[in-house]
Specification:
By secondary structure, this protein is α/β, with parallel strands linked by helices. It has one domain: 3-Layer(aba) Sandwich (Rossmann fold). The chain is built from eight helices and seven strands. β4, α3 (94-122) and β5 (125-130) form a beta-alpha-beta unit.
């Protein structure tokens, strides 16, 4: 994959950083777009200016520079996002709600459109969006959850829109993953590790590299006939969360 260029938005931390590292180890030429400055691992290139995914002109300029330097972008991972505030609707400020929708949904759409039109013109490319299990069920995140549900829907519409142009669009929806953001949630008491792990069929959290592996598979040639899917990577949380209603998992 040495000649293949993949852009990872939000690639400085969390799942984005894990995906960038995994793809670089698989031989991709990886370029990270992020608002934050920082160090990247060997084999990964950080774009030399901060990029906000809600800024369409900034995205356009970044892709122009990247393709001039490294060649056509054939892969895009949309990992840029912000977590939702766990507040009742009456306490969630509209500015916070709008920011969650803007970054998690609008930013994903703008990055898809910026990369996708270029891929369509070349009739080749693959995009992986990052959804969430919060977009597949009920959760007390009234901006983030609906935004991620919309990302899953957007994935299917773009897959149908661009499929005849040789561009695949898929989604990975992580479960509770051991990122710095989740660990901070444990520290401040917003989330409880025991509750999260006890609800999952596999009885544990997800590792960032496990999400990265799913992303790499969907963006690579091994999944060449797959488009428009949403793949949960959640250690069986969706499968297991309702079992508490029936007394819990057998064998415990």
């Amino acid at each position: 994959m040495a000649s293949e260029v993949v852009v990872v938005t939000g690639g400085m931390s969390g799942i984005g950083a894990a995906a960038a590292q995994y793809l670089a180890e698989k031989g991709w030429t990886v370029v990270v777009l992020d608002r934050a400055a920082g160090q990247v691992r060997q084999g990964i290139t950080a774009y030399d200016k901060p990029v906000d995914v809600t800024d369409e002109e900034g995205l356009r300029q970044a892709f122009e520079v990247i393709e001039a330097r490294y060649g056509p972008v054939t892969g895009l991972v949309n990992a840029a996002g912000i977590l939702g505030k766990m507040l009742p609707p009456e306490r969630l400020s509209i500015s916070d709600w709008e920011r969650e929708i803007a970054v998690d949904l609008k930013g994903t759409f703008l990055a898809c459109r910026t990369a996708g039109v270029r891929m369509c013109a070349r009739r080749r490319g693959a995009i992986v969006n990052i959804g969430s299990i919060a977009g597949m069920t009920s959760a007390p995140v009234h901006g983030y959850g609906p935004a991620k549900a919309a990302v899953i829907s957007l994935t299917t519409t773009l897959a149908a829109e661009w499929g005849r142009n040789g561009v695949r669009v898929n989604c990975v929806s992580p479960g509770f993953t051991e990122t710095p953001a989740l660990l901070k949630g444990f520290e401040v008491g917003a989330l409880d590790r025991v509750r999260l792990t006890s609800a999952a069929a596999m009885g544990r959290l997800v590792r960032p590299d496990e999400v990265a592996a799913a992303i790499a598979w969907l963006i690579g040639p091994e999944s060449s006939a797959i488009t428009g899917v949403n793949l949960p990577v959640d250690a069986g949380w969706l499968a297991g969360v309702s079992w508490a209603t029936y007394g819990g998992f057998r064998g415990e």
